[in-house]
Amino acid sequence: MSASDRWLLPEGVEEILPSEAARLETLRRELLDLYSSWGYELVITPLIEYLDSLLVGSSHDLDLHTFKLTDQLSGRLMGLRADITPQVARIDANRLVHQDSKDHDVSRLCYADNVVHTKPRALLSSRVPIRIGAELFGHAGVGCDIELIGLMYETLRIADVGSIHIVLGHVGIFRSLINAADVSEEVEAELFSAMQRKAYGELDGLLEERIENIEIRQMLADLSRLSGDESVLDKALDRFAGAPETVKQELAELESIAKGIKARIPELSLGFDLCELRGYEYHTGIVFAAYTPGYGQALAQGGRFNDIGKVFGLARPASGFDSDLKVIARLSKRDFTGAKAIAAPWNDDLALAQLIKELRQQGQRVIVQFDAGVALSRADYDRQIIKDNEKWQVSPL
């Protein structure tokens, strides 16, 4: 291996240099403070753990994105976490909920940490994103989802990524219609794939071939076209007036959440995509995602994942969202430039050392200059410590 090759990093893996690191850390601290102000407590989960615990109850997609390796101590298969939500669900199920009041405790938890993916989830995306998010366990009402969508909006507003458009969906509608159609898992998978890709011609052909019930067939065809602005919900309520009762309940839930969000954030740009089935394997109800012009993917996303803790011994209603901190920091329009530093000379004078200590305790950034002959850059410093009348003091450059 040549010397130049030793500097190469794997594709999708990047170093974070000081200026970008400062942006990330400033934003991370602000967002965690935001979550704390809403009552969400920070948890830190292990980067690596046994695979049968890490992937239990998770999706096939998550399995594909998880690096596997063998533990040299136990011989068991381990994995590098590709998602933090299952770990947080385990914490809620096994560490926080009091056994004598399982059904009444609400847990609000948040996190901000790296995950590792075997391959990028999207073009030019990192394989070591920093996921920042919040999860709420123990409340089945729409208030939980309204709170989390509001917190997701506030996350992106603080990051100042530009205009924010939030899209709501509900995976339960598709699931209820499939149950009413009484088809096999194979047919369900085919219809799911076509609907998720919005391959209308393929989907219509599959519906014609596989769904005998004409009314359910038409409802599934209609569902695939129901995406757009706020008028979509009114169209859905009209088109599914004769749908199974569960579909009506899910639409009513979606309508209630939409009204609750708009009442709290009147200026919010809101849309609907009723054939959005992201996370279908584990989401159980509403799903939501945030977008901004000029960025072709969701900036943040989340939804209902009730009973995710069942595999850990405690089934609880849950909802949450997360985002890639690297992406929102890169898209942020904020100026993260910190205060300029104070230049201090290298000197054995204890009075100088005491002044530097006091300035740093006040939150000032003081950098000692070992070489007195080096000119100070006004891009980095705006003050310097000089000795005047036998006393050290801070002076403008």
Question: What topology does this entry show?
Answer:
Elements: H1 18-37, E1 41-42, E2 48-50, H2 51-54, H3 60-64, E3 68-70, E4 77-80, H4 85-96, E5 107-114, E6 130-137, H5 142-159, E7 165-170, H6 171-181, H7 185-196, H8 200-210, H9 214-225, E8 227-228, H10 231-239, H11 245-264, E9 269-273, E10 286-292, E11 295-304, E12 318-324, H12 325-331, E13 341-345, H13 350-361, E14 366-369, E15 381-388, E16 391-396
Parallel strand pairs: 1-5, 7-9, 13-14, 13-15
Antiparallel strand pairs: 2-4, 3-4, 5-6, 6-12, 7-10, 8-9, 10-11, 11-12, 15-16
Helix pairs in contact: 1-5, 1-12, 5-11, 6-9, 6-11, 7-8, 8-9
Question: How would you describe the overall organization of this protein?
Answer:
With 397 residues, the chain is α+β, with helices and mostly antiparallel strands. The chain is built from 13 helices and 16 strands. The protein has a 9-stranded mixed beta sheet, sandwiched between helices. A 4-stranded mixed beta sheet has the order 14-13-15-16, with helices on one face. A 3-stranded antiparallel beta sheet has the order 2-4-3. Strand 15 and strand 16 (391-396) form a beta hairpin. Helix 1 (18-37) runs antiparallel to helix 5. It is elongated and about 95 Å long. The two termini are 48 Å apart.
Helical element count?
13
Question: How far from one another are the termini?
Answer: 48 Å
Question: What does the largest sheet look like?
Answer: 9 strands, mixed
Would you tell me the structural class of the helices and strands?
Answer: alpha+beta
> What characteristic shape results from the CA principal axes?
elongated
Order of helices and strands: HEEHHEEHEEHEHHHHEHHEEEEHEHEEE
Overall mean confidence score, pLDDT:
90
The unreliable regions are none
Helix content: 25-40%
Radius of gyration: 26 Å
Order of strands across the widest beta sheet?
1-5-6-12-11-10-7-9-8
Let me know the number of strands.
Answer: 16
What is the beta-strand fraction?
15-25%
